[in-house]
Write a structure and sequence with these properties.
This protein is mostly helical and about 170 residues long. It has one domain. The longest helix is centred in the middle third of the chain and has 42 residues. The radius of gyration is 20 Å and the shape is globular. About 30% of the residues are buried.
Length: about 170
């Protein structure tokens, strides 16, 4: 008797279903595009290339918002904009957008202030402070751009591949 999960043919079917999930594909694609835009903007602004921007939080556009907006748009296109599942996706999008531009932004502002206080303290006491991450949240413009990016990517992908816009 086999141990360790489903047989290989079932794993292949699960993997195929996973990568053929249009909602998941557009959500991940939107996140990636947003992260590459951040990298490109940093390159133009600072004149240096930093791979760290592919995983960094904050900045223009909001990758969390782009991903959630693409997901909600895809759910609406596939299930209908009047469906309960779209209402859930839209509610999650709203929560993510609020969190990105208020809660996380406030945490970033507090981290910046704490870092300034710690730097002043450690300068006088010869310690090396460990800095808090300051680049956490987003401005309203960054969130709006993430929203527009996510909707555009989901709409574009579903228009290019209409079979994905039909619910299974």
């Amino acid at each position: 008797m086999r141990k360790g999960g489903p047989p290989p043919y079932k794993r292949q079917i699960m993997f195929r279903d996973f990568i053929n999930n249009s909602t998941l594909v557009v959500a991940v694609a939107s996140w990636l595009v947003a992260q590459f835009i951040k990298l490109a903007l940093f390159l133009v602004r600072e004149g240096k290339f930093d791979y760290g921007f592919l995983l960094r939080l904050g900045g223009m556009p909001s990758s969390h918002t782009a991903s959630a907006a693409a997901c909600a748009t895809s759910v609406g296109l596939r299930s209908g904009f009047g469906s309960p599942i779209f209402a859930l996706a839209l509610g999650m999008l709203a929560l993510i957008m609020i969190d990105a531009q208020s809660v996380r932004r406030a945490a970033g502002t507090q981290a910046r202030l704490l870092n300034q206080m710690a730097e002043e303290f450690y300068r006088n006491h010869k310690f090396s402070p460990e800095k808090l991450v300051e680049f956490l949240g987003h401005t309203r413009l960054e969130v709006l751009m993430g929203l527009l990016l996510g909707v555009a990517i989901a709409s574009g992908v579903h228009a290019a591949f209409p079979v994905w816009a039909v619910a299974p």
